[in-house]
Specification:
Order of helices and strands: HHEHHHHHHHE
Radius of gyration: 24 Å
Bound molecules: protoporphyrin IX containing FE
Oligomer: single chain
CATH class: Mainly Alpha
Helix content: 55-70%
CATH topology: Fumarate Reductase Cytochrome B subunit
Amino acid sequence: MSNTPSQTFNDATGTDENAVARAASYKSVYVYEAPVRLWHWINALSILVLGVTGYFIGSPLPSVPGEASANYLMGYIRFAHFAAGYVFAIALIGRLYWAFVGNHHARELFTLPVFNAAYWREVITMLKWYAFLIPRPSRYVGHNPLARAAMFFGFLVITLFMIATGFALYGEGAQEGSWAHKAFTSWVIPLFGGNSQTVHTWHHLGLWAMVIFVTLHVYAAIREDIMGRQSMVSTMISGYRTFKD
Ligand code: HEM
Ligand code: HEM
């Protein structure tokens, strides 16, 4: 079948005003403000650095022969871990500040409506949706209720644990009198029976808890982007949630 002149023009130029006129019109809502989005990606990057460098702190590379000053690899790895640790912790303080001054979606990460029956009904809907038991989920402007619970317990609680145990270990190296020793080491290590090796073990386990969260989180974000009724990944970039129906 040959093309009409206007179709040939459309194909050549990529413009097709008729198709646009017949297309569905989408609605968008501004959800995540710039500081939330900026924090999300700084946070993801710092966790990537913390996870990789932390793994090598726990399973160090074999020592290399030669002059020590030319072979400072484990030193650099530890330095990167501590620097990313500071970024991670300070960024969380900034994110907490934004929960107070930002829009109501900025508070979702820190609060969980556990005494609200409607909330739990939506959690069950989302569980069924992820298990392929229902054909259509609800439409969510903010985080879906299951994601919200995962972000609270799977991210926030683990993050606070990693900051407390991380700075407790850091304060051990920085020694008594340092701010980290006063603020964390002095009470976190006694909480674990006074043995910093136990703190190392729990801090190490936290890495795997975080790996599980990030794996499920990225899977769910991409799955919802494709199968859900609203945009996902682009929302954490542009701030706008676009509804597909
Ligand atoms: C270390 C890696 C990551 C961590 C720890 C993480 C953590 C989080 C947290 C805590 C939130 C809630 C944001 C808030 O309310 O302030 C969030 C939202 C989100 N993240 Fe990530 N994230 C990571 C990587 C990624 C990646 C790689 C993607 C993209 C594929 C992604 C996509 C999203 C999306 C789309 C949302 C919004 C979800 C919604 O609107 O319900 N994240 N993430
Ligand atoms: C998501 C966050 C984090 C992850 C996944 C992570 C991961 C790890 C891992 C796997 C280890 C090795 C533990 C071992 O087997 O001994 C480690 C050690 C350590 N981490 Fe973290 N960490 C995180 C956050 C932090 C923070 C916020 C700090 C604060 C500065 C920190 C400071 C330390 C210190 C001081 C050590 C011991 C270093 C050494 O003994 O050479 N970490 N981390």
